[in-house]
């Protein structure tokens, strides 16, 4: 069910829904809203510290979920940086948010490369870069309709979007890879009210 909602939102980019019922621009989400908040499929993977992180264990916090790889030359580092800046902009409220970045490159996203990516990009403690084997990651990719196509030179063509889930674990807002930190921070503040 969630995958269908994501596909519809990503394909249509439901900007009209983003403004429905809003009384001012400050009450509107900057990203594309899902027409109905939709439960996100659960999963559990290991983060850069070797800890198992389950999506369902994040209930009570807002979650930004995305799909990246550490050797990406362009958009993945930019997405990580923008999400990190958005979370940091919240000040003390950042502890009420988690960023879960699921690997799309099980061969290249080794524990060492993930720790280096997190360190080099100065990602906050709210940022969890999740990895696993192809067998562990593939069901997550399917559940979220994410394609991952590795190439011989180490590049990976993949689906890249960010979904913002509310504190009950329901997807509310979707962003494309060009989203700016201030837009995400604005939407996080709306859901933290």
In sequence order, what are the helices and strands, one letter per element? HHEEEEHEHEHEEEEH
What's the rounded overall pLDDT mean? 88
Q: Going by CATH, what is the homologous superfamily? A: Glutaredoxin
Q: Can you give the helix content as a percent range?
A: 25-40%
Going by CATH, the architecture would be 3-Layer(aba) Sandwich
Largest sheet: 6 strands, mixed
SS-based structural class? alpha+beta
Rg over alpha carbons: 16 Å
N- to C-terminal separation?
A: 28 Å
* Proportion of beta-strand residues: 25-35%
Biggest β-sheet: strands ordered side by side in the sheet = 1-10-9-4-5-6
Number of strands: 10
Uncertain ranges? 9-23
Number of helices: 6
CATH topology: Glutaredoxin
